[in-house]
Write a structure and sequence with these properties.
The chain is 79% helix and 0% strand. It is built from ten helices and no strands. α5 packs across α7 and α6 crosses α7. The longest helix is centred in the N-terminal third of the chain and has 43 residues. 31% of the residues are buried.
Amino acid sequence: MAEPVIPDFGEASDCVAENRLFCPDWVRENWDPVLQPALVQHIYLTAIAVGVGFVISVGAALLAHRLSHVERPFAFLAAVIYTIPSLALFQLLVPVTGLTVTTVEIALVSYTVLILFRNTLTGLRSVPPEVLEAARGMGLTRNQTLWRVELPLALPAIVAGLRIAVVSTIALATVAAFVVSKGLGGPILGALRLDFKTEIIAAGVLAVGLAVVADVLLVLVERVVTPWAATRRTA
């Protein structure tokens, strides 16, 4: 069996030279030049994808909430794209948009749309009829009812969709390294090619940690913007 090719980092420690399971000294020395930039890029890729996907999905859900015939074709298209494996979708996009960040973002946005659209629409349609009747009885217009009643009550479902979309996008963004060397997928892919264990573990742990932190932050945001939901759960 061939020995793994260890990257040349100058005077490597015995741990790095022997390619042991994990070398903390390599992580310390390569945090600034390798791991930190990859982490920032990963956050950037995820934030753009989820942000754009959120705008598209919420807009489509609001339209489908008013015009029911919009739901089926939009959901069907989003579902078809969602079933395409990520690498296959990248390959389909590369001839059109090239080996660029645009290719990555189009794919990542596409995977968020179905989740966010369904959760938003479900949240809007789960508002009790008696609440809507009370809003009409108070003289609220249809738009006022949407912004003051339906959307606030739909927030738990919307945030739940955001949590799923963010975590799944963080995971899928690692695959983007096959298109552009951006995000934590870059160090992971490079380390896999060299069979360098420390870099694989360090970048992988950062990706998992990023997903956990993002999910926790969204849970806290949900509790802040929907305090009535927390009260209902503890009642």
